[in-house]
Every structure is written in C-alpha cells, then in structure tokens.
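stage 2 :: seqdesign
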C-alpha cells in the first residue's frame, strides 16, 4: 500500500484553509474580484513553501477560472514567451466559455540577458493583459527589477512558528499520531517556515525515519549523485543520493536551456550512465524500461502542467532502478556514447571546427552546411591538386594549425 504524501493530502482546497500570510491572501482576493482588462499583474514574492502556488490554485478554483499554468524558467527567451503567451491573451475564455487565468511560476528563472530578451519581452507582453495574470518568484532581484515595476507586488513570508505548531498539532491529531514536544520543536525549527517541509518531516518522523534539517541538506553534483546512487549499499542511502542530486526534469518540448542545465537533466544523466556501462542486455532492457516509463510520467506532468507530480519521480526512479542496478559497475557518464567511440568524434569535431570557422563566412553559409556540403569536396580538391595544406592555410588564413587540421582530413580521406 502506498501512503499518500501529507503535503498533498492536506493541500488547502480554499483560500480560507491556508496557513499564514493572511494579509497577502486578502490583497490577492481584492485584486482578483476587482480585476478588469488591462489591470496590472500580481507578482507573489517569497521563499518556497510559503503558499504562493497554493494561493493561485485555490483562487482559480474558488472564483471559477480555468488556470493555465506555466513554469517561466522553461520558456526563457523572446520567441518562446511570445509563442506561449500571445495566444492566451487572444482567447479570454476556454472552449466552454470559462474565464481564463494565466499563472507564470518561477519568473526569476526567465533569462535576463539582453540577447535573449526574456524579461523585456515578458514586461511588454503583460502591459495590457486581457486575462488575469499572476506570477511568482522566490525573491526580488536586480534581474527582475523591470518586472517588479510593471506588477503589483505581494510579499510572502515564512509561516511563523506559532501557526506552524497549531497546524502541526491539527495534522497529528487527524492522523492519530503522537510526537513528543522535542520532536515538534525540531520539526518546526528545521522547516524554517516552509509548510511542505514541515509536513514531510512530520510524516517521515511518524513513519519511524529520522528527519534531516533543511540547513543540513546540500545539493550533490549530478555526477557524484548518479555514481553514489549506483554504488549505494542500501535503498535508503540510494534514495538520498537521488533526492539530493542537483538535477531537474525539464519539459522535453521546450529544451531552450544552457549546456550546464542540460547536464543536470536527471533522466538524461541516468540514461547516459546506464547505456555507457558494460552490463548484460537483459539487465539493460529492464533498466531502460523503468527509465522509459518514468519519462512518460515526466512528459505527461509537463504537458498537463501538473508540475507538483514531479516531486514523486525521484522516489519512483530510486526504487524502480535499485534492485536491477546493484553490483553492475554502473557509474556516471555525461554522454550516451562510450568514450572509445566518443573520443575520436569529439577530437575530430574540434579539428574540423577550425576549418569550418574559416570556410563558412567566406561562402555565406552556416558552419553545419559547410561541414555537410562543402568540406568533403574541399578536401578532395586539395588531394587532386596536390596542394600543401600548411602553406595553403598560412597564405589564406594566416594560421598554421588550420593547415594541420586540413592535413588530418586529407589523411582520413586517403584511407577510405
């Protein structure tokens, strides 16, 4: 039997059931009930677990809105923002006539770089909204300064200990669970005003597990976490490596993320590590089956905007892969191609890059087009005309190293 997480079981179903930030909730209600086309958006600012997302969900339900939720950190640049938001503003009601509300979570994850135009585009889009727009950020920063000036700010604060104690006692009484005073104090202190953390710690302690202080939790680099998971001696230890991994589950439809963030894609990291290890085909098939099913869950959660479901994926992965991956010698690999194959490919790409960087601008084509359509014929012409590659490079590019790269390509062509 799978026990439901208390953080989901006791998620408020109305604004009145929420705990803490009473003034913030009242301001949000007044804003929504008085909303008119063109009204400034709301920007909820406060640390995780203080009720920002819960408030938006309960407002939409109580005031009968069809809420369209997006994680703004997944749609960072100008083109992506326009493609997702403009159609919403062009349709103020859904197919059955229900009013629409737009919720943009984690707007502090939108790119602030001028070349991508993320924040500037968002500011321009929300100047005259045709539907209520609510956004959320973990903190005010210089990055979103322009955005804060265009919105009505509602600050959210950590829930005070006195309210946390009352809420914790109510939950424990409902669940028929008894905890000592010291345990309650420890749970409240460790939660630091975060309702989700409070409920998770209480449920963990009630189930017989020791709680871990928020301030003691340190994200583990994805490489160390993956290797640690596959080498863990107990399931509990393995789960901790997955939970603490500095990783995420991005929406595969919107992959406009940096190389560093792409490296932290948990499913991708597990897949590349599994397929790059020397394990029996039968074991590989079982592991890939777990990953593929998990990938479907992640895809559906992102497509339906039910991002809160992603919190369960860590446990599903940790348990699903555990038995099938013990003592298989699996360790972290960033790339899904084994290094004996990847190494020469990588080395050649670095070598040909020098050539293509010079050819592409001269021919007014992209580097990829130059590599696909021009480079083979260029190398063949060098061979047929018996041109010295180093002298050619010095005469035309003033760079001897490019000549050395051309010479390597000539040797490869001659061996074919």
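stage 2 :: out
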């Amino acid at each position: 039997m799978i026990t439901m997480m208390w953080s989901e079981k006791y998620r408020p179903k109305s604004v009145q059931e929420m705990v803490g930030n009473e003034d913030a909730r009242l301001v949000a209600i007044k804003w929504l009930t008085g909303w008119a086309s063109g009204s400034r958006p709301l920007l909820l600012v406060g640390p995780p677990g203080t009720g920002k997302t819960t408030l938006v969900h309960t407002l939409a339900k109580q005031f009968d809105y069809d809420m369209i939720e997006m994680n703004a950190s997944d749609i960072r640049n100008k083109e992506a923002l326009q493609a997702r938001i403009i159609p919403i503003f062009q349709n103020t009601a859904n197919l059955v006539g229900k009013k629409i509300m737009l919720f943009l979570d984690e707007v502090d994850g939108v790119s602030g770089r001028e070349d991508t135009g993320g924040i500037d585009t968002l500011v321009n889009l929300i100047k005259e909204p045709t539907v209520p727009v609510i956004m959320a950020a973990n903190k005010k920063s210089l990055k979103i300064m322009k955005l804060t000036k265009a919105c009505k700010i509602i600050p959210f604060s950590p829930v005070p200990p006195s309210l946390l104690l009352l809420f914790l006692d109510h939950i424990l009484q409902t669940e028929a669970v008894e905890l000592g005073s010291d345990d309650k104090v420890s749970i409240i202190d460790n939660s630091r005003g975060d309702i989700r953390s409070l409920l998770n710690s209480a449920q963990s302690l009630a189930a017989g597990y020791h709680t871990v202080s928020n301030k003691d939790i340190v994200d583990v680099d994805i490489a160390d976490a993956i290797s640690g998971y596959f080498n863990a001696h107990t399931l509990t230890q393995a789960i901790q490596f997955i939970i603490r991994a500095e990783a995420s589950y991005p929406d595969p439809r919107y992959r406009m993320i940096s190389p560093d963030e792409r490296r932290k894609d948990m499913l991708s990291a597990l897949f590349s590590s599994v397929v790059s290890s020397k394990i029996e085909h039968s074991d590989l098939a079982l592991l890939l089956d777990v990953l593929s099913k998990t990938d479907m869950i992640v895809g559906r959660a992102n497509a339906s905007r039910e991002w809160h479901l992603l919190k369960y994926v860590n446990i599903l992965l940790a348990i699903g892969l555990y038995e099938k991956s013990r003592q298989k010698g699996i360790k972290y690999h960033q790339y899904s191609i084994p290094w004996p194959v990847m190494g020469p490919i990588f080395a050649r790409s670095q070598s040909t890059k020098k050539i293509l960087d010079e050819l592409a601008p001269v021919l007014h084509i992209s580097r990829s087009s130059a590599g696909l359509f021009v480079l083979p014929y260029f190398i063949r012409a060098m061979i047929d005309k018996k041109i010295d590659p180093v002298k050619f490079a010095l005469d035309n590019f003033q760079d001897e190293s490019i000549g050395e790269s051309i010479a390597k390509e000539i040797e490869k062509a001659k061996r074919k």
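stage 3 :: structure notes
- Confidence is low (pLDDT under 50) at residues 212-217.
- The radius of gyration is 27 Å.
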